[in-house]
Specification:
611 residues, Penicillin-binding protein 2a (Domain 2), five-stranded antiparallel sheet
Length: 611
């Protein structure tokens, strides 16, 4: 090796030594971050929990805020004999339970080390005050202040979600969380957990040789303040939400109202759902919640898959028009139903024959059996399977059989049949249009969520398109976290919607004796367009369904109401939807309709579910 190469090697080692020496000097004499994390046996970290972001309605009313709560901590290394009788008296626990709690702490003593862990959670203000007065009697115990959720208005908890302590599985999947941290579950709390949670802070204290707290470490130079969670403004209209929940008292089902021009959800109601009383201390009520036969944890608005019933006739009518197998003047007869060989699909009494507009107004089953068969037996397709798959594509473009993308977890796709399903059920070429005739009236193998039905109402209002339904309107400090409401178009030409919308208008606003099915929903001075549905239920009374929007031109609200075992669509679901629309558009219920409001409140259908 020549002299130049030797010099290069020597220079390399000199530079490396200088860098290493500089790093050691920086770590030991200048930067104490390493020491702070390494000397855990002489340092005590007191966690400062952030307040969770506030949740507002669209007009600034608070849906969820925070209040102070207190946890009693235990530091096993500092524990000494204490007044157990007084401790039990303050926190209303038995001596046996205290012994078991202490045994559990002792078993975990090595893993806890010098740290403090929660011993009693969320004690009351009175218990907190009594503990502070007698804290000298309880060496090794201390208090940790944190904020917990508070709900100024008693609204449907399934919308907001609840807060619980992170379990082991969650901690393993999310290493940024630690034991004792609280997380959002279901609803907005889970969907926007990272936005709402904020960042924990801490204060570092120095211990002496006897493990006693001596003083703040480095005069607080390495303390970290907590960062509150970000606030969010939702699309919910709180007065309308409360009114809708009032109307749904003693009924089981869902009410969803949205602004068809934006996809913003005005109400999302599940009845009977979680009350905010349960949300404030979910763990205490958990056994009561899961044993409730009405399943309050189940968010029916997005998790239930129901037969849509006659409201689905709107979709079949539009597909028939687009496929040119019918036009607005097409007429079919009905003699109390549709008959083909030994098969009969019954219908109620009404004038016959009907054209398209009248068929929507009167909800004629026979008309739509003819429409579906015309769609599936269309000679432009090679066979029924091919036409069935085209029908399936049309229906999917309306948002059925898929998740719409609402910004809370748990949304179902529902079920949408196609040729693959019927080939599996009946064998290839083993079925025909008559085999699946129940799809004509929204029965059979199709299942829809109430959210999808509300979206159908929005599509009708918009004459062919919809926006992604969403619950968050704005996160002022985090625009990137806001949901994107995209516009989606059906495969049906917008001009086909006019005669179907006219039928919806006449269903509500026709005179007595016309055969219109939704006259009970009429609102003086408001052009409400609606469609009733009575969905067959093999487990009891039929389900009551109603979709609507208003006004007819330049609509501002679209609604779907689904009441389990409510009977005819006009009897239960239509009044709820109609009253909700009137409240939203006018701010009150007219004196001439107070009787309908009172009658709706008096309806008690819970007994049908508890038999």
């Amino acid at each position: 090796m020549n002299k130049r190469g030797k010099n290069a090697i020597i220079l390399f080692f000199i530079v490396g030594l200088l860098l290493l020496t500089g790093k050691l000097f920086f770590l030991q004499l200048i930067n104490k971050e390493y020491k702070v994390t390494a000397d855990n046996n002489v340092l005590r970290y007191e966690i400062i929990y952030p307040s969770r972001g506030l949740i507002y309605d669209r007009n600034g009313a608070i849906l969820a805020d925070n209040k102070a709560a207190y946890d009693i901590l235990i530091t096993p290394r500092e524990l000494a004999p204490f007044d157990t009788a007084d401790f039990c008296s303050i926190f209303n626990i038995s001596r046996e339970r205290l012994v078991n709690m202490l045994a559990d702490i002792d078993a975990r003593r090595q893993s806890i080390g010098y740290q403090s862990v929660i011993f009693v959670r969320q004690v009351s203000n009175q218990q907190y005050t009594h503990f502070l007065e007698k804290s000298y009697k309880f060496p090794g115990f201390s208090v940790q202040t944190r904020s917990v959720r508070n709900y100024p208005s008693d609204i449907c908890g399934n919308l907001l979600g609840y807060i619980v302590e992170a379990d082991k599985t969650y901690l393993e999947r999310n290493p940024e969380y630690r034991a004792g941290d609280y997380i959002g579950r279901t609803g907005l709390e889970e969907a926007y957990e990272k936005t709402l949670k904020g960042e924990k802070g801490y204060t570092i204290f120095l211990r002496d040789v006897l493990n006693r707290i001596k003083s703040p470490y480095a005069e607080g130079a390495y303390d970290k303040p907590s960062v509150p969670g970000k606030d969010m403004v939702t699309t919910i209209d709180l007065p309308l939400q409360l009114f809708g929940e009032e109307l749904m008292q003693n009924k089981v089902g869902s009410v969803i109202a949205l602004d068809p021009t934006t996809g913003e959800i005005l109400t999302l109601i599940t009845s009977t759902g979680l009350s905010t009383e349960y949300l404030t201390n979910f763990g205490v009520h958990y056994s009561q919640i899961i044993s409730d036969p009405l399943k309050p944890l189940f968010n029916r608005a997005i998790m239930s898959s129901y037969p849509p019933g006659s409201v689905f006739k709107l979709v079949n009518a539009l597909i028939g028009l687009e496929e040119e197998v019918i036009d607005p003047s097409t007429r079919f007869s009905c003699n109390m139903g549709y008959r083909a060989g030994s098969l009969t699909v019954g219908c109620h009494a009404h004038p016959s024959p009907t054209n398209l507009v009248q068929s929507v107004m009167m909800s004629c089953n026979a008309y739509y059996c003819n429409v579906l068969r015309s769609i599936l037996d269309n000679p432009v397709y090679e066979n029924t399977a091919q036409s069935m798959d085209q029908w399936e594509r049309y229906v999917k473009s309306f948002g059925f059989g898929t998740r719409l993308g609402i910004d809370i977890p748990g949304e179902l796709t529902g079920s949408l049949p196609g040729s693959a399903l019927y080939n599996k059920m009946y064998g290839k070429n083993g079925w025909r249009s008559l085999t699946v005739i129940s799809l004509a009236i929204g029965q059979g193998e199709i299942g829809t969520t109430p959210l999808q039905l509300a979206n159908l109402a929005a599509i009708m209002a918009n004459r062919g398109h919809f926006y992604t339904p969403h619950l968050v309107k704005e996160i002022p400090d985090d625009n990137a976290a806001q949901p994107k409401a995209t516009q989606n178009h059906t495969l049906v030409n917008p001009h086909h919607f006019e005669p179907v919308v006219e039928g919806m208008y006449l269903a509500v606003n026709s005179p007595a004796g016309s055969g219109a099915t939704a006259r009970l929903a009429a609102i003086p001075g408001i052009d409400l367009c609606g469609k009733t549905g009575t969905a067959q239920n093999p487990h009891g009374e039929d389900h009551s369904v109603f979709v609507c929007f208003a006004p007819k031109d330049e609509p501002k609200i679209a609604v779907a109401v689904y009441i389990e075992q409510g009977g005819f669509g006009a009897s239960q679901a239509a009044p709820v939807a109609s009253l909700l629309v009137e409240k939203y558009l006018t701010g009150d219920i007219q004196p001439s309709r107070k009787w309908l409001y009172e009658r709706t409140l008096e309806q008690d259908l819970l007994s049908r579910h508890l038999q």
